[in-house]
Amino acid sequence: RTCFEHSGLFLMVIKQHISKCFDGILTQDRKKLKKLRQETSKIQAGANIIVANIFKTLRLLQHEDIAHAGKYAYVVSALQEIAESVRDMIMRCHVHTSNKHAGLLPVQRKELQQIRKSVEALLDDTSSILLNREAFDYRKVAAHYLDLKQLLDDYDLNQIDRIRNSVSKTRLSILFYGINNVCLKISEQTLQLLTIFEETFSLDEES
């Protein structure tokens, strides 16, 4: 498998973990989140395997292929950032529930469901593109990220109002913002992988 195909598989696993994490925190399922936290080492292991394969590829690159080399460094950075972000999200949610803090407010759960849809859609589309090495409409896929950004801006204002009105307590606010920030980071790095793939795909077609 190529670097991008491995990355596509990795994003599929990431999406599964994010979905389970959302399920756990939205239902305050401590057991599910505890089990998920115990599995986080698999995420880093998956990223490490891809990184090792990338370094192997770099060693084998011929001089004429050096145009691709610079792209691999960005892939490594994106994969590591995604892995760390997912682990952070799972840990935050597990700690919150294991300490038996109050569950998310109904309105917060509703907003997080919308955030979830945008992140999962971006991960789904990107993983499929990387796995199949197929032509795609970049703007169509990037639209998921733009939708997410708009939602985060809107929900940030909503959360500020909740804080001012003492509707959302400190721990809930920290959790809510923490989840949103992680989702933004994951989406940014996923889009970075897509951008690198598009640029590399163009180089391959020109060569």
Could you explain how this protein is built, in words?
With 207 residues, this protein is an all-alpha fold. The protein is built from 7 helices and no strands. Helix 1 (3-26) runs antiparallel to helix 2 (30-38), helix 1 (3-26) packs antiparallel against helix 3 (40-60) and helix 3 (40-60) runs antiparallel to helix 4.
Fold blueprint:
Layout: H1 3-26, H2 30-38, H3 40-60, H4 66-98, H5 106-132, H6 138-164, H7 170-206
Helix pairs in contact: 1-2, 1-3, 1-4, 1-5, 2-4, 3-4, 4-7, 5-6, 5-7, 6-7
Low-confidence stretches: none
Question: Strand-and-helix sequence, N→C?
Answer: HHHHHHH
What would the principal axes of the Cα set say about the shape? globular
- Give the oligomer, counting copies of the same chain as homo and different chains as hetero: single chain
Write down the overall mean pLDDT: 87
Find the count of extended strands (DSSP E, 2+ residues).
0
Largest sheet: none
- The helicity comes to over 70%
- In angstroms, what separates the terminal alpha carbons? 21 Å
Based on CA atoms alone, the radius of gyration comes out at 18 Å
> Pairing-aware structural class of the strands and helices?
mainly alpha
Number of helices: 7
Strand content: under 5%
